[in-house]
Amino acid sequence: MRHVPGTFSIAAHDPTTNTFGAAVTTGTVSVGATCPYVSANAAAVTQSYTKTEHGRDAVARADAGERVDDAIEDLLSSDDYADYRQVHGVGTDSESAFTGDECVEWAGHHVGDGYTVAGNMLAGSDVVDATAEAYESTDCDMAERLVSALEAGEAAGGDDRGEMSAAVLVHAPGPEFYHNLRVDLSDDPVSDLRELLTEARRAKAQIQKETDDLFGDYPDEILNFGVKY
């Protein structure tokens, strides 16, 4: 097993836009490579003593028609080290969060309507509470809500050792530049993630303008990862 230090994260589902997303920050590098997973039917995060298969398999089983809470429960039931894990996620019809008894304090989670938040090795429970409250109170698209939630959690104390990396990952019917953003090593990764989000939105608007100037009012689909690369 490989120990991934303290982390807090959020997984969410917006049924109105059929969008799933996850965002995470931690006190070690490249958290986006191993912790968040999304698909057309689920979002899941695996952390603490991270087992990547739990995130990957949870969304795969949701894609196959299984409830995400049943999938996570079954995955953990066959894991000899489940007490060291933290796994949470959402599907189209369920939410699930698990914090093992051996996770490093402070550790805990929150389950809301269409979202879950979890963290370990944190400054305190205020981090999870602030992350949840910010997600509920932000009325924007999924990427904005997730980054705002991380910002609130960080402001409440965040990882007890400070953060080094952050990521946001979104699955939506129409992909955007800002649906897969990672800050792999930084003194202030959540702030850098916000800057990336802002720049990705600016780039999308600039490409839209240049394309419209050249070709007229083309459908948005032509811009999604198909023009100006």
CATH architecture grouping: 4-Layer Sandwich
CATH C-level label: Alpha Beta
Radius of gyration: 17 Å
Number of domains: 1
Number of helices: 5
Large-scale geometry: globular
**In percent, how helical is the residue content?**
25-40%
Model regions low in confidence, pLDDT < 50 over at least 5 residues: 225-229
Explain this structure.
The strands form 2 sheets. This protein has a 6-stranded antiparallel sheet, covered by helices on one side. It has a 4-stranded antiparallel sheet with strand order 3-4-5-6, with helices on one face. The chain is built from 5 helices and 10 strands. It has a single domain (7-223), classed as Aminohydrolase, N-terminal nucleophile (Ntn) domain (Glutamine Phosphoribosylpyrophosphate, subunit 1, domain 1). The N and C termini lie far apart (39 Å). A hairpin with a 4-residue loop joins strand 1 (7-14) and strand 2. With 229 residues, it is of the alpha+beta class. 33% of the residues lie in helices and 26% in strands. Helix 1 (52-63) packs antiparallel against helix 2 (68-77).
Write the layout of secondary structure elements.
Elements: E1 7-14, E2 19-26, E3 36-38, E4 42-48, H1 52-63, H2 68-77, E5 85-91, E6 95-99, E7 108-112, E8 115-120, H3 125-137, H4 142-155, E9 165-171, E10 180-183, H5 189-215
Antiparallel strand pairs: 1-2, 1-8, 2-9, 3-4, 4-5, 5-6, 7-8, 9-10
